[in-house]
Structure formats: C-alpha cells, structure tokens
Amino acid sequence: RRVLFRSQRGGIRVQPLTTAAEVLPLLPEFFAMHVARWESKGIESGYLRPEVRTFLERWVEVSAAHGWLRALRLEWEGRTLAMEFSWEYETRQYCGQWAFPLADARRSPGQVLLRHSVLQALERGVTIYDQGLGDQEYKFHLPNRTVTCTTWGLFPREA
Q1: Helix and strand tally (H, E) in the chain?
Q2: Strands 79-89, 71-76: pairing kind
Q3: Alpha carbon distance, N-terminus to C-terminus of the chain
Q4: What's the pLDDT score for residue 3?
C-alpha cells in the first residue's frame, strides 16, 4: 500500500484533535466526504439531514468540554486523507463515523486511519477499542473478541 509506505517515511501528518475549536471547522469537509462515499454505494448518508449534522456539532462541543473527544485527522500532501470521530471514557474508546475522499479509496485510507487510531489509543492506555455496531469486514481484523448485540422491537399491531 503506497500510502502506508509513505506514512512510514513521514508523508502523512497525524493530527489528534480533542477540542471543539479544532474539530468544528473540519465538519463541513467531513460531512461532504461522508455524503459522497455513501452516495457512491447508493445509500443516503444521515449527514444530508440538518438535524443529524447539528447533533454531531453539539456532541463535539459537549464531549470536548468533558475531555471525551478523540477525533483524528490524517493529512497527506496538504489535504485530508481521512477523518474519524471517536470518544473516550475511562479506558474505553468508542469509534464513531469515519470518512475519506473517494478519490483516495484505492489507497485504503480507512486501513491507514484504523492503524493510526489504534496506535493513538494504545499510547493513551485504552484497554477496550469499541468499533461499534455492524459487521463490516474491517472490524474483524483487530478484535480478540466480539460482542453480539440482539435488538428487540415492540410495535403496535396494525388496526
């Protein structure tokens, strides 16, 4: 992987971000990357809805104020290669949304981001790296165990 090789030679700048002042200006770019990536899959991104964008903006502010915010931005050749939002509480990191430019998809920016995210978490003493719900293939590259969540829903009968 060319990007990973360049990363080892210093071509990628890793930016851990923990304040709202650092993260909020990056949100429009993050939203645009997320929307484009999901659109390419034929799926509508939640970030097309203003209330979802507002929720993340407010959550960034609240989580940063409590010291929980752990965003990560990878910069390559002067531009964003990938971004993630995650939160840390005690010794557990909860991973949130990730995004990267479609033009860089062949360079595996998600794998590079995952590598740096895990390394950053280990440096901080994280003992549980929670990748959240879903069965995406990349989530099975790391864990030494997975937790299965069963969801039940109660719905009224149709009249």
Answers
A1: 5, 5
A2: antiparallel
A3: 57
A4: 45
